[in-house]
Write a structure and sequence with these properties.
The chain is an alpha/beta fold and 308 residues long. The protein is built from ten helices and eleven strands. The protein has one domain: Class I glutamine amidotransferase (GATase) domain (Rossmann fold, 3-Layer(aba) Sandwich). The chain has helices at residues 10-16, 29-32, 47-58, 82-88, 92-95, 121-134, 143-153, 199-203, 242-252, 278-296, and strands at 3-4, 35-41, 64-70, 89-90, 100-105, 135-141, 158-172, 186-196, 208-214, 218-224, 229-232. The chain is globular.
Length: 308
């Protein structure tokens, strides 16, 4: 089913060539029954690339999803043009009175900083607090997941001895969970991070449940027991070449970077990467939107912007 975004968005134009339809104009009352409003807080530097990654996953669901992109007002992106942000993004002030069925908070390359040292941390806190009354369910990715776990549950991140970089095998902890319907007992996810979260601390937090983890990558998927928050420590949204681009970028800058694990055949960068995570990524996002957001959201009937 289609997504609904500005047809001039570059990512929408590219995805149209992949048969991901962009819905234009008003929808009928019958269509509204199957439609959701999704807010995406994009904190990644290459915002246009992240838009494409996320819209590809969101577009693979039987629901019609209206997507609104959110940016921080307190920090100006250095890698995305001001014109792009002005045309396709809103700030919290512009959506403050609106309700959304779902929200995605992306990762961000600020792991080396304490949360309070991040330039836009006060604004992110305000957005997360606002989401408690204006968003039914929020999906937090990588650093975004760490930020959510820290703000809502006081669970701090810790530095890893070396960068976790590659594709890792994960085991399902609760096959009956709605988020994992149809998921294989073992699935793969990309990771690219310098920090992690302690499993023991999460287990001691009564409001949280671990749904999937990895012997190498640690805890991967966590949900709040009321399904209002989902945290993923990896990057299910990554394209086939995302880790390769990161690897080549760091090599070109002379940084110490290992070949991403389990990514190239025989760990040989001369060969094309093996995509092992695409089906799990689509299924995870589809399950979240279908079973958790659509079935649970009290906001989906409130399609008029600004209604309390």
């Amino acid at each position: 089913m289609p997504i609904k975004v500005d047809p001039q968005l570059p990512a929408a134009q590219k995805l149209a060539r992949e048969n991901i339809q962009n819905m234009e104009g008003e929808v009928s009352a019958e269509q509204k029954k199957l439609s959701l409003r999704l807010l995406i807080l994009n904190l990644m530097p290459l915002k246009e690339t992240t838009e494409e990654h996320l819209l590809r996953l969101v577009g693979n669901t039987p629901l019609e999803v209206e997507v609104v992109f959110l940016r921080t007002k307190s920090y100006q992106s250095k890698n995305t043009s001001a014109a792009h942000l002005a045309e396709f993004y809103l700030t919290l002030e512009e959506v403050r009175d609106e309700k959304f069925d779902a929200m995605i908070v992306t990762g961000a390359p600020v792991e080396h900083l304490a949360f309070e040292e991040v330039a836009y941390w006060p604004e992110l806190v305000e957005i997360m607090e606002w989401s408690k009354s204006h968003v039914y369910s929020t999906f937090y990715i990588c650093w975004g997941a760490q930020a959510g776990l820290y703000y809502f549950y006081g669970l701090d991140k810790y530095p890893l001895s070396e960068k976790l970089f590659g594709i890792f095998e994960h085991s399902v902890s609760d096959s009956k969970a709605s988020l994992l319907k149809g998921m294989d007992d073992v699935f793969y996810l990309p990771h690219s991070r310098h920090t992690g979260n302690h499993k023991e601390a999460i287990e001691k937090t009564a409001e949280l449940e671990i749904l999937a983890e990895s012997n190498e990558a640690g805890v991967a998927l966590i949900r709040s027991r009321d399904n209002r928050q989902v945290f993923i420590t990896g990057h299910a949204e990554y394209d086939a070449d995302t880790l390769e681009k990161e690897y080549m970028r760091d090599l070109a800058k002379g940084r110490s970077i290992a070949v991403p694990q389990n990514y190239y055949p025989n760990d040989a960068p001369s060969k094309s990467p093996i995509v092992r995570w695409r089906s799990a990524a689509h299924l995870l996002v589809s399950n979240w939107l279908n079973y958790i957001v659509y079935n649970g959201s009290t906001y989906k009937a409130e399609q008029t912007i600004g209604k309390p």
